[in-house]
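Worked example

This section walks through a single chain of length 547. The input is the sequence exactly as stored; nothing has been trimmed or padded.
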Amino acid sequence: MKLLQVLTDIFKRSFIMEPGEKCKSIIEGLAEIRVKSNKVFYNPVQEFNRDLSIAVLSTYVKEYKEQKIGKTKHLKDCELHDVPFTILEALSATGLRSIRYAKEIPNITKVIANDLSAQAVDTIKENITYNSVGNLVDASHDDACMLMYKHKNPRMRFAAIDLDPYGCPSIFLDAAVQSVQDYGILCVTATDMAVLAGNSPETCYVKYGAVSLKTKCCHEMALRILLQSIEHHANRYSRYIEPLLSISADFYIRVFVRVNTGAQQCKKTTSKLSMVYQCVGCDTITLQPLGATKPNPSERNPGQLKFCLPAAPSVGELCLHCNQRHRLGGPIWTAPIHNMPFVTRVLEYVTENPHLFGTAKRIAGVLSMVREELPDVPLYHILDKLFGRVHIQTMPILIMRSAILNAGYRVSFSHASKLSIKTDAPARLVWDIIRTWEKQFPASANKIESDLVARYILSQEIQSKVDLSEREDANPQSRRSGALRFQFNPSRHWGPGTRATINDGEEKMSKAKRNQNKNSKKNTEKRDHSPQSGDEARKKLHSDDHP
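Given that input, the structure is written out below as tokens.
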């Protein structure tokens, strides 16, 4: 053991000793990696993503092994450590994530760190040796899809597959859903948020098979579009997914789904998907399920469900609230996007081991919010957008939540937005609350006169009984405890970065820096080069000399 340690120390000291070559050292969690080339991708902003993935997989390993022992005949007499748990990181880049998996996730068998770039694979191999994890991590130089297709045989499948591509993950999903074990876990990141959030609905349909909408709840809709896309790929092979945790954070979304096989279960997919009607005037969302289930009246199969088609459409020609027309988007996943008992176990793991995670406080805050979300309510309203639509002073969020609770409905925040209102209350009640508030704080007559939609909404009679008295239970526990629920940007010029470069420090983000305030710069240049009178020139010179 001493000899091995000496050899490791020698390797570490000689890692960057080639003349004229620069090397960047990156420490995260228990891993330290060295990167020599700017052609290898690393983004420090995604530390939260990596920390959360480690927490999820650390929690899932035991559940996976217990399930395999209970369901697999040849494993019934085995101990937990006898059940293999192999992780594939299909797009590994520097190998940082795979090395952290090997060092920080207990009871795993093997991690495959794969990349298509030969230079990246060389970096991965060097970092594997540098971190002394050669017994757990194997470097692979292959096309990610081809590697997964080679492992689609049930005996060769991976227990966990991590897909964290630059941009859209859809090209990898067909291979991934075939090469993950039954009861295995698929971890998928998407960073093309502009497409998923409605800026390019036609592109979203090409990539994900769903039309995105530019709506206030676009971050949760992005999660639900990605989930329906994964389910669609899985259904082709009589497989289906169960979302364990779905997170919208920073500039990306991240989902963790369990994959299983069962043709009968796949029939339930249509009842988990809906088309989305969005009012163009007031942004009210109405869902149109693609399928439904009802009890089977047959005496032969008591307790089984019967599948049927729901009545359509779920909206009239014009919106009930503002008399405008609708846009149609979707389909999106409308079943629960989190498994609450599992989220609780992950939160407990992070709370018990905060020293393992650099972003432990943020993970705990986000998961605390997730646990408070209404699991059976898709999408949400945005408080200031609701009141801004009718040009009135925004109501304090606790009063809004209290009014909904006083009416007998449920309400929660969404982790995806600070001013979110997720509720099972009908949209009519929400607008009635706003109309009641407007009686106390009237809108500007000039603004209402020129806005047809706002005038129509406020002119409707209040049909619900509205009580604006504040309640104690309107303030959720995560908010009362001061949990870190929403984080500020971790650095200047942050974001997904550029493909295949080390985005560590501002010197590597020249494009982002160039684009900062570019419109202001153009305006300044125009003023500087515009013809000026003698008096104007003298005033400018005087102001420059004497600030």
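What to look for: Residues 47-71 form the longest helix (25 residues).
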